[in-house]
Design a protein that fits this description.
The chain is globular. By secondary structure, the protein is an alpha+beta fold. The protein has one domain: 2-Layer Sandwich (Alpha-Beta Plaits), CATH 3.30.70. Helix content is about 20%, strand content about 25%. The strands form 4 sheets. The protein has a 4-stranded mixed sheet with strand order 8-1-10-9, covered by helices on one side. Strands 2-3 form a two-stranded antiparallel ribbon. A two-stranded antiparallel ribbon has the order 4-5.
Length: about 200
């Protein structure tokens, strides 16, 4: 069995510092006003039993990505390790992939006029480094690695904690796993819009 990359986000550790968001923009030269990853601030519950939860979000690099087959020019493709990428030279900016993604993880880059999203910092990972968001996380809330390697930290976290994924009913089989996430926050609707959060 080959590598299969995944990410675990431990919400018990996330302090909402947004360092992951800043590191991603810097590493990937993401234009102002758009984000490859972001942190939603959510209110959970009903008064007087209300709490706040931070929910870091990004492309889930799904096993069965709904964005893949809708692309008319095959600009979206998936590597053997599960990473979902966009070929900017092929992309025509039709937005079909944006409409197909139930996680609100894609956007049109206003400078290139092509679809864009998190790519797990593919070049960094190929060089043996961690994605920028993982590398900069001050609390260690983000863990990235090979889910098929039982000795990897990411596989151990999934094996030893109750984890959940966003919108499992879509059958996309997302590969971003959350520890201690509020289930309602992860599946507000099928359009990928989280109420209470700002992207």
């Amino acid at each position: 069995m080959g590598k299969r990359y995944a990410m675990v986000i431990d919400l018990r550790k996330c302090v909402g510092c947004h360092a992951c968001q800043v590191a991603c923009k810097s590493e990937n030269n993401v234009p102002l006003g758009v984000f490859r990853n972001w942190v939603d601030e959510l209110e959970i519950g009903k008064f007087p039993n209300v709490s706040r939860q931070r929910l870091p979000r990004l492309c889930n690099h799904c096993e069965n990505p709904s964005c893949l087959n809708v692309c008319p020019v095959k600009a979206t493709y998936q590597l053997e390790d599960g990473t979902v990428l966009v070929d900017y030279d092929r992309c025509i900016g039709c937005k079909y992939c944006i409409a197909a993604c139930p996680y609100d993880a894609r956007f049109i880059n206003p400078e290139r006029n092509t679809a864009e999203k998190c790519d797990y910092c593919h070049a960094r990972v190929d060089a043996g480094l961690q994605p920028a968001c993982v590398n900069t996380c001050i609390s260690g809330a983000r863990v990235f690695g090979d889910i098929n390697d039982p000795n990897s930290e990411v596989a151990k976290l999934i094996a030893t904690n109750a984890v959940t994924v966003s919108k499992p009913e879509t059958n996309n089989r997302p590969q971003t796993y959350y520890i201690q996430a509020d289930e309602k926050a992860l599946r507000p609707n099928l359009l990928g819009i989280v109420t209470g959060g700002e992207k």
